[in-house]
């Protein structure tokens, strides 16, 4: 399973990259705003700064909601850097834009996906990635992981090439469960990724090894 980090914070992206396990980055307009990145030019520069840190795909989201606007914006984003994947919302105009981008060879990430039907449409339009938001489903008492499982079944039934990018991952167990189900990619915060490292037996085991080494070498 590929690991993407879901942030526009350059320090956190660098930290995740330094771990040696990072495969890409996802951003969205809220994450950009959280970092204080505003204004068209600054946002574009920020995408380039992210691409300079990581080797993999970087999702950059369109903010137009009509087909023509999305096409213009998406083409400009794709021209920015070869690592950019154009993130398009799962709405009617977005679906048309994804189908258009697919024909043009522009890679897409279909975002704000909350149902199997939406994921099916994204795959039929040729999206590179589909982003089901598991945390936001959990927030409304609906099991987000069941959606990942169901999309996996449907995509496998028809051998769709669209990659399942489990998004809105909130914690470490979401990552583990997504890996068990067979999500292709997960995107989550640094804290959830680093949570995978932790085990009390690792800490106590290491403490004992180091103490025994110190006894024998003092
Ligand atoms: C997906 O790419 C989104 O950026 C993201 O995962 C949304 O997560 P949230 O529900 O924690 O805001």
Task: Provide an overview of this structure.
The chain has 218 residues and is an alpha/beta fold. It contains 11 helices and 8 strands. The protein has helices at 10-18, 29-34, 40-53, 67-80, 92-104, 116-124, 134-139, 144-158, 172-181, 190-195, 200-216; strands at 2-6, 24-26, 57-61, 84-89, 108-113, 129-132, 163-166, 185-188. Strands 1-2-3-4-5-6-7-8 form an 8-stranded parallel β-barrel, surrounded by 6 helices. α4 (67-80) links the parallel β3 (57-61) and β4 (84-89). α4 crosses α5 (92-104) and α6 runs parallel beside α8. The chain is globular and about 70 Å long. Erythose-4-phosphate (E4P) is lined by residues 6, 26, 28, 111, 131, 133, 135-136, 167-168, 187.
Concise overview:
The chain has 218 residues and is of the alpha/beta class. The chain has helices at residues 10-18, 29-34, 40-53, 67-80, 92-104, 116-124, 134-139, 144-158, 172-181, 190-195, 200-216; strands spanning 2-6, 24-26, 57-61, 84-89, 108-113, 129-132, 163-166, 185-188. 55% of the residues lie in helices and 17% in strands.
What molecules are bound to this protein?
erythose-4-phosphate
- Assign an overall shape: globular
Distance between the termini: 44 Å
Order of helices and strands: EHEHHEHEHEHEHHEHEHH
Mean of the pLDDT scores? 98
Number of helices: 11
Q: Could you name the ranges where pLDDT drops below 50 across 5 or more consecutive residues?
A: none
Q: Order of strands side by side in the largest beta sheet?
A: 1-2-3-4-5-6-7-8
Please tell me how large the radius of gyration is: 19 Å
Helix percent reads 40-55%
Strand content: 15-25%
| Biggest beta-sheet profile | 8 strands, parallel, barrel
DSSP strand tally: 8
Structural class designation: alpha/beta
């Amino acid at each position: 399973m590929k690991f993407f980090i879901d942030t526009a914070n350059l320090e956190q992206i660098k930290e995740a990259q330094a771990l040696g396990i990072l495969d890409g980055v996802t951003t969205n307009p809220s994450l950009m705003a959280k970092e204080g990145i505003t204004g068209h030019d600054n946002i574009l520069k920020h995408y380039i700064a992210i691409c300079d840190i990581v080797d993999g795909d970087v999702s950059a989201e369109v903010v137009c909601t009509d087909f023509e606007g999305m096409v213009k914006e998406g083409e400009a984003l794709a021209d920015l850097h070869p690592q950019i994947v154009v993130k398009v919302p799962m709405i009617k105009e977005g679906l048309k834009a994804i189908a258009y981008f697919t024909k043009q060879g522009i890679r897409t990430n279909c975002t704000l996906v909350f149902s199997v039907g939406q994921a099916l449409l994204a795959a039929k339009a040729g999206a590179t990635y589909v982003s089901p938001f598991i945390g936001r489903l959990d927030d409304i008492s609906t099991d987000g992981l069941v959606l990942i499982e169901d999309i996996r079944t449907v995509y496998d039934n028809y051998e769709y090439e669209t990659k399942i990018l489990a998004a809105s991952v909130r914690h470490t167990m979401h990552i583990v469960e997504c890996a068990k189900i067979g999500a292709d990619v997960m995107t989550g915060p640094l804290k959830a990724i680093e949570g995978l490292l932790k085990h009390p037996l690792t800490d106590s085991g290491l403490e004992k090894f180091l103490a025994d080494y110190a006894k024998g070498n003092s």
